[in-house]
Amino acid sequence: MSKCCSKCNSTLHTTGEHKRADLESREGKVKEFDEILKDCEEKYKKKLSEYGESWREMLPAELVKRLFLEMDELATATNPKEAYEETIDVINCALMVAVRVKQDAKRDN
């Protein structure tokens, strides 16, 4: 067998085996993102039923200020569970900023 690649420099497996391992690793990483995005969606839906979509009326700059407040909450989290919940809030707030900025961009074109 020849060397697999510069990544592992191994002669113990074929290039195809290495590529399969890379693919499985990437699929696992994508699954992690999917699980986090699912948590984001669930939390967004819960807050949507409590607060509605008032954020859609906010200026992007106001949402960015809120994003900074959410990041400050994350920075002061005292345990992993709290940090994860705050991370979900940061992601959701960042998505709200993106939606508003995209709306403004479409309107300006």
Per-chain topology:
Elements: H1 15-51, H2 60-75, H3 80-108
Series of secondary-structure elements, N-terminal to C-terminal: HHH
Q: Tell me the count of domains.
A: 1
Q: What is the β-strand count?
A: 0
Number of helices: 3
State the share of residues found in helices, binned by percent.
Answer: over 70%
Main sheet: strands, sense, barrel: none
Structural class by sheet pairing and helices = mainly alpha
Taken from the alpha-carbon principal axes, the silhouette is extended
Q: How large is the share of residues in beta strands?
A: under 5%
Multimerization status: single chain
Report mean pLDDT, rounded to a whole number: 87
Distance between the termini: 57 Å
* Radius of gyration, CA atoms, in whole angstroms: 21 Å
Unreliable segments of 5+ consecutive residues: none
